[in-house]
Specification:
There is one protein chain. This protein has three domains: about 200 residues, FAD/NAD(P)-binding domain, CATH 3.50.50; about 50 residues, no CATH class; about 80 residues, D-Amino Acid Oxidase, subunit A, domain 2 (D-Amino Acid Oxidase, Chain A, domain 2, 2-Layer Sandwich), CATH 3.30.9.10. The protein is about 30% helix and about 20% strand. The strands form four sheets. A seven-stranded mixed beta sheet has the order 8-7-13-14-15-12-16. Strand 1, helix 1 and strand 2 form a beta-alpha-beta unit. The longest helix has 19 residues. The protein is globular and about 60 Å long. Bound molecules: flavin-adenine dinucleotide. The site of flavin-adenine dinucleotide has 42 residues, from helix 1, helix 2, strand 12, strand 16 and helix 9.
Length: about 350
């Protein structure tokens, strides 16, 4: 049977868009060549509402986080898997100035969902180096991305909605069916959307064994350490590499994460795995969503950058509403807003 929509890629974007569409009665066919090489599979899966050195709310945190909670809860129930866990994030402070900045931020009523207006906390100094203390960020959590991808893949297979093969832009051009590319950084390298303002960033990470460590929180120190479903195994990283020669893990960045772990931890650790992925990031830190101005049956749902876990649920719902009910796409993400003649040439940004 011909599907209503073809979706290319089953990372977080293709998975959540297909889910949001199917929830609205749309039939989909997802093509995916292998989730192991996806950015989603490499991700630590953290949703963090407060970012940066100045402890500011990340873009649209108040809107994104409730939708992420709702969608991951629905999916967890459907897949009968614990895919998402709300977890506090403990950010270690580096100076008295940072303590003051944090204190000022806690007084802002806009931040009360995320920061406690209490005294600074301290992590156990036998475990974590935090001479200036640490503060807890609430409202975030962690998606077990590999578990989600694998269990959702089985769900698609059961519905006969997955083809484990490549789908190309050449195929899309002659397709009678709408096609949406959710192919991650591949859309920056090939096809109709290469001219968008991509700024792809490779990331490397380690899985490390740490005995008797915190498995009920995420630690954000010189590197970020988060628990995994496996006892005593923690995700450490990731790095940011704007220029790289290989998509594979490298010794140089493995050593960089190890150095960061030494700066963060007082306890010993053992490296058990080293992985890498490429983030489909964008110059202006906004997703790329919508249909091509010259090929209106070919769309894109991509550009989630460093925050796919928090952005994708909200924007999948938003895009599904646009596709199914014709609601307007937000100008901040719509690839048509600043359209240029096809083919979209490099450097001509289509979006905000
Ligand atoms: C190391 C690392 C750590 C990260 N940590 C976090 C984090 O903690 N929190 C967070 O929110 N974000 C994090 N991110 C970012 C997040 O992973 C991305 O924003 C998100 O995964 C992008 O999802 P995507 O679906 O667009 O792309 P991808 O996950 O890359 O999925 C694309 C899929 O398309 C498939 N595909 C590609 N081309 C074709 C084709 N022609 N035909 C068929 N299939 C195709 C690929 O095989 C892949 O499965 C991290 C990223 C990395 C690399």
């Amino acid at each position: 049977m011909t599907p209503d929509i073809i979706i290319v890629g089953q990372g977080i974007c293709g998975s959540l868009l297909s889910w949001s569409l199917m929830q609205r009665g749309v039939s989909v066919q997802v093509y995916d060549t292998g989730i192991e090489r996806s950015a989603t599979h490499a991700a630590s899966g953290i949703i963090n509402p407060i970012t940066g050195k100045r402890f500011v709310k990340s873009w649209m945190a108040d809107e994104l986080i409730p939708v992420a909670n709702k969608i991951y809860t629905q999916l967890g129930e459907k897949l009968s898997q614990k895919i998402f866990e709300p977890l506090p994030i403990y950010k270690t402070l580096e100076s008295v100035k940072e303590q003051n900045d944090w204190s000022a931020r806690t007084a802002d009523p806009d931040y009360q969902n995320y920061l406690n207006n209490t005294a600074l906390e301290a992590l156990d100094v036998a475990k974590v180096k935090n001479p200036f203390g640490a503060f807890a960020i609430n409202g975030g959590g962690k998606l077990d991305a590999p578990l989600f991808l694998n269990s959702y893949r089985s769900h698609l297979k059961e519905k006969d909605a997955l083809k484990e093969e490549a789908y190309t832009h050449a195929q899309a051009l002659t397709s009678k069916t709408k096609v949406v590319f959710c192919d991650g950084f591949r859309s920056a390298q090939d096809g109709l959307f290469t001219g968008l303002t991509w700024q792809i960033v490779k990331g490397e990470y380690l899985l490390v064994r740490i005995k008797d460590f915190y498995n009920d929180r995420i630690i954000s120190g010189d590197t970020t350490i988060s628990p995994t479903a496996e006892k005593d195994i923690y995700y450490a990283g990731a790095t940011y590499q704007w220029h790289y020669e290989t998509e594979a893990p490298t010794e140089q960045y493995k050593n960089e994460i190890i150095e960061s772990l030494y700066k963060t931890l007082h306890v010993p650790f053992e490296v058990v795995y080293h992985g890498a992925g490429v983030r489909p990031s964008t110059k202006y830190r906004r997703p790329f969503i919508g249909f091509h101005p010259e090929q209106p049956h070919i769309g894109i749902f991509n550009g989630m950058g460093t925050k796919g876990m928090s952005l994708a649920p909200y924007w999948a719902e938003h895009f599904a509403e646009h596709i199914v009910n014709g609601s307007a796409l937000s100008e901040e993400v719509d690839v048509k807003i600043q359209s240029s003649p096809q083919p979209l040439s490099k450097g001509e940004g289509l979006t905000a």
